[in-house]
Amino acid sequence: MESIDLASTTTRDLNARLQSEADGSNAAFEVLHPGGRHALACGLTAPIAVTLRGHVGYYCAGMNQNATVTVHGNAGVGVAENMMSGLVRVMGDASQSAGASGHGGLLVIEGSASARCGISMKGIDIVVKGSVGHNSAFMAQAGHLVICGDAEDGLGDSIYEAVIYVSGETGKLGADCEEQPMTADDRQTLTELLARSGIEADPATFRRYGSARSLYNFKIDNLGSY
Amino acid sequence: MCGIVGLYLKNPSLRPELGALFAPMLTEMSDRGPDSAGIAVYRDAEAAEPKVVVFHPDEAFDWDTVASGLAARVGDAVSIEPVANHAIVSGGASALALRDAIFEAYPDVRVMSVGTALEIYKDVGLPKDVLARFQVGGMGGSHAVGHTRMATESAVSTEGAHPFNTGDDLCLVHNGSLSNHNGLREWLSTHKGIRFQTENDSEVAAAYLTWRLSEGASLSEALEAALVDLDGFYTFAVGTKDGFAVLRDPVACKPAVMAETDDWVAMASEFRALAGLPGIEGATVWEPKPATVYTWGRA
Question: Which member of B251, B255, B285 has the closest CB to residue A55?
Fold first, then answer.
């Protein structure tokens, strides 16, 4: 495993090194002393594995494709924002807007996430072992947000076709977000997401939340767009 | 955007190093606010002598004449120690009386801080230059808060820089903007006799807390009341003579992160400002929750 120490390397050099791996590379990297710096391990495209040992700043693993990025610490604002594919795992807590606008891939937060987790998500799956802050899944368009703990007020405000599963308590739901029946398909999707995340939770304890479809012009013909 | 930082030392043996620990925290927040910077240092909670830190843009300003003039007005010996374009004025029976004498006799001298433990230094320029100008790295004390400013609400000037102090030993730094500050300033000024020195929204927040404390509220109670009466975006770090507090508004769109060990508790807009503190590897690190008052010391 190649080790890169940010005590003696710039963020730009780190990202250039990680981005230089060939498309099929499955090389492994360890990043030391991240020191809360912003935009670490961003724009990766190869299926490499990057382990960051410490707390990271804003937008860590942003725009990720194919890579597996693990943060052994807390993550600042916008971890895995606009992720396309791959796996990002935060061993600690995540700040606001985790997984914002993500199109695909899986974001796992072993601790809790603060406000606006999964804001405007467009297909990403997010699994939070702890709780999430207010206005999570705000305007969420597609994908799944799994919350093993509690959700603060405003969950799913102005939500489109993303689906939320919550095991704990919810505060006041956001506009046009409603509790919906948990189907066999939901249970299977949830069971698979928990298994892929490596997070132990009983799928039977979860409730489903989604859009009441009264705030936007929902047309069943357009369902395939989400 | 602005950057704010705070450091409260729980272990008294670290007090001689306060400035050395604090200065790099503020410098790290330069990207968030390169217009101006300020620091509030609590030197000695046991100190009893009234102390007013003042500012005059002319570094050659004749402070000796001011000292003798003030001595005549307050009827007591007054000493002045210049620090760059600021000066520490001490003496008299009370810091507020000393401040009022300055307001009355020297209207072109700006009052930065009033109290017995608190000293505020602030100026335009990059944070590292402001810190060097006032030799903050060598200062000792029990706690400090600081601010790097990217101005939104009012002009880039020494007076408009944070921290703000409006009464005995209370100071506040603010990241955000308040929307009801004009009405509140008017009310505090008309009905509570609080004197404002700037048009800055954050000075109103400091004045509001000063008023609440003067009515007998604890710092925690004053901040709970602020959640109701202040409208806008804010992350505040607040110092009193022997207390330290952090508060974020209910929407919490302005960032804050905290860290605590047995020796200290620290807050900053971003974690990188805390990354150099001794023992950070083992510290408890968390993001303060919205609309939740966090306090240390007597608060």
Answer: B285
Q: Both B185 and B270 in a single domain?
A: yes
Amino acid B153: pLDDT: 67
Identity of the residue in B281, B285, B287 whose CB atom sits nearest the CB atom of A114: B287
Indicate whether B27 and B65 sit together in one domain: no
State ipTM.
0.89
Whole-angstrom Cα distance, residue B141 to residue A37? Answer: 29
pLDDT, tens digit, 9 for 90 and up, residues A43-58: 999 999 999 999 999 9
- Chosen domain end from B95, B116, B137: B116
Q: Which of residues 116-155 of A touch B (CB under 8 A)?
A: 133-134
> Does residue B216 sit in the same domain as residue B106?
no
Q: Rounded to an integer, what is the distance from CA B169 to the centroid of its chain? A: 9
Cβ contacts of A74 on chain B, cutoff 8 Å: 257, 271, 285-287
Choose the final residue of a domain: B90, B116, B142: B116
What are the distances in angstroms from CA B194 to CA A3, B106, B157, B206, B209?
58, 18, 22, 11, 11
> Does CATH place domain A2-225 in 3.90.1800.10?
no
What pLDDT, on a 0 to 100 scale, did the predictor assign at position A221? 77
Contact B282, B261 (CB under 8 A): yes
Cα A73 → chain centroid: 15
